[in-house]
Amino acid sequence: MNRRYVAAVALALGFGITTAASRAQVALVVGSVRDRAGRPIAGAYVVALGAHGVVRARARTHADGTFAVAAAAVRRVRVTCRYCRTTTVAVLGTQPVIAIVQRYAALAQPAPDAGDLANLPYADVASALALRPFTLLQLSRDVYPGAQISDRGLMPGGGLVLDGGVPSYDPVAGLSPFIAIPAGYETAVRVDGAGDAFRYGDRAGGGTYALTPFGPAPVDTLLLGGTSSLRAQGGGDGVAVVAGASSDAQTSRQRADLAGTLALGADQQLAYGAATEQLHAFGDPGGALADAQSVADLRWLIPRAGIAATAAIDRGAYLAGVTDYALSSVWSDAQLTLGFRSPGRGTFFADAATRASSGYQDARALGGADLGANLSQSRLDAGIEAAAPGYDLRVGAAAFWIAQRGAVEAGPSATHASFVTPALRLRLGAARRWRARVDASGAYALPTFVDRYADAAPATLPYLRSTLTAATLTYDDLARVRASLEAARSDLSGDANGSIASFGLALTWQISPQIALRSWTMHVADDVSAPLGIYSAALAPTVDALWLTYANAGALRVDAIYRRDLLDDAPFYHVDGDLSGPLRGRLRWYAGIEDRRRARALSLGLRFAP
Asked: 100-121 pLDDT, tens per residue?
């Protein structure tokens, strides 16, 4: 813990809260509860203890981690919180109490956190994200289309990726959004499940994965071996820059990101971001892919009023070839969003957004079509959220207006569609050992331009509608063990008809403060009436993971992982792992090994830990 930081907290608490106490002439014990990374712990229970352990008073920490207990003759405070090791701290006179607790990160974070992403051995960030329970990873040994992940396998074609807050996908042919991201580049991810699809739109029925390379501390890397990679982060005064590159036997990737904020006064902020990335890849046999993508966004925020406005653009282009033939593609998007969120426990939210996409592909050298199209999507969503100690409720709906116009060799074609996607989420027992979550929502997926126009131009827009019903039951001892049982069903209509069903079990056990075991298994099946179904009857995939971590702060970290994913639509069993340790300060040595699509890859090097 930074001594200057502790001193600042102590000074603020001592001056602010203690001064207030002296005015009221009431004995107070004040303090702050934080984890070892300096993050505040909200909702922690603080028990003031007198002589012989007699309980004098109780309190809970605020959102900033501070607390105040009205009691006299207090000698110690005992701090307990969800997924924390119980900590007892002595009270020294009128000095503010600084309680530093050890957080059990394996339970506190449902998806891999910054420390995990900085250590896991995977060159493809999709492989790291798929360690999250009930995530279906589909890989291909061809460079095109690359990895796709989806929440419980409930949406064909994978979920939606937000790159710096901007939807990142190829409307022309569905190129993987992960394919050009360098190894070890991303430091944080936020996952919204299929039940949140109404807030995003196309493809979000497979979950939404918001990626960012900016963490609370720099994660710099220099690795050699099966994957050679370099990553550096810097900045200051509200501006951050990160750049990275990686290469292996098949791919070379480069990327750079810029992000910053400007204070406009009157509690207003202007945030901006931009990124660019490139990929060169070689497939087997004789395939090759050159890809370039870029994205930029501008966000105007008025936090007190709950207003946010965003303008974003992105663009991508690639050239893919097999032997002596090649196809080229290019697409671009522009999006405007205006959102409102009221303050308080009972929250009303509303968003309006419009998005315009266009794309072109020339596949004539491969005997395909020369085609192009424009796509517009407009959304208006609204809903309410309410929370109390025993429940958390959200009810909402979104209306979408879709228009697509294509230009193909057979002539132009224009189609329109509109529909409403409702959403209900109910969590019961939010602060108890037994918890339940129920989701009922709608989603949709649009065909790529190639799917729609390569052979013919149908008179109607052949979109896919899905209706989700899902339930999750979780037991949590509030400390070291969490077990979950999930069941979900997605009923499809439109371009394909039938249903996808998912059933899974997950267990997370913090065996000791340093050792964590995370495991889950999920079976997915479908009866969809498309030509071959979503998952063929012979596969009916079962995917799972067993992830054991030993992490001693400032010392050794070891990850040992067994997992089963899908590779070329068949089960893919593999064992991966990593080992790292300290050299000096934040500098650490590192070794990682992974089974990369049936080929072992060993990487060695140096990393600066977050």
From this structure: 988 888 888 888 988 888 889 9
